[in-house]
Amino acid sequence: MTVEENKALDRRMAEAYNKENLAVIDELLATNFVIHNPPPGVTPDREGFKQSCSMHHTALGDFHVKVENIVAEGDKVALHLTWGGTHKGEFAGIAPTGKQATMTVINIYRFEGGKIAEQWAVADMLGLMQQLGVVPPPGQG
């Protein structure tokens, strides 16, 4: 596949994640898909990716993903994303706060055979925890 086709698949993945469309996620991920750094309690495979999607929608009731930037080279695509929503359900052991929160995320996907085969993700969890009031901002602790 071309770099542009891979970028289009990643945009489609972001849309599927937005809508919690697990059938499309199944279609886009390779059967041997690997998450290299899954969230705690999530398996590092395709089922874990879908579990993570559902977890975000449960925790942040009006959850949404926005693709800010997308860069690709060879078989890899990097996405700069903004995730957000209202904290309406338990998240990482934190009871609902009702607060609006956003988080910056960088995902790198590797493609193989027209499907997403691997994912690496880095998320600003500290910033999210500060917005939810779990961790005080610098200088206020």
Descriptive report:
The longest helix has 16 residues, at 3-18. The protein is of the alpha+beta class and 141 residues long. Strands 1-5-4-3-2 form a five-stranded mixed β-sheet. 22% of the residues are buried. The model has no long low-confidence stretch (mean pLDDT 94). The chain is globular, with a radius of gyration of 15 Å. It has one domain: Nuclear Transport Factor 2, Chain: A. The chain has helices spanning 3-18, 22-28, 46-59, 125-131, and strands at residues 29-35, 64-73, 76-86, 100-112, 115-123.
Descriptive labels:
141 residues; alpha+beta; Nuclear Transport Factor 2, Chain: A; 5-stranded mixed sheet; 4 helices; 5 strands; 31% helix
Give the SSE map:
Elements: H1 3-18, H2 22-28, E1 29-35, H3 46-59, E2 64-73, E3 76-86, E4 100-112, E5 115-123, H4 125-131
Parallel strand pairs: 1-5
Antiparallel strand pairs: 2-3, 3-4, 4-5
Helix pairs in contact: 1-2
Q: CATH first level: which class? A: Alpha Beta
Strand content: 35-45%
The CATH architecture: Roll
Number of strands: 5
Average pLDDT for all residues: 94
Assembly state of the chains shown:
single chain
* Largest sheet composition: 5 strands, mixed
- For the record, give the distance between the C-alpha atoms at the N and C termini, rounded to a whole number: 50 Å
The helix content, as a percent range, equals 25-40%
Instruction: Give the count of structural domains.
Output: 1
Read across the widest sheet, the strand sequence of neighbours is 1-5-4-3-2
Structural class: alpha+beta
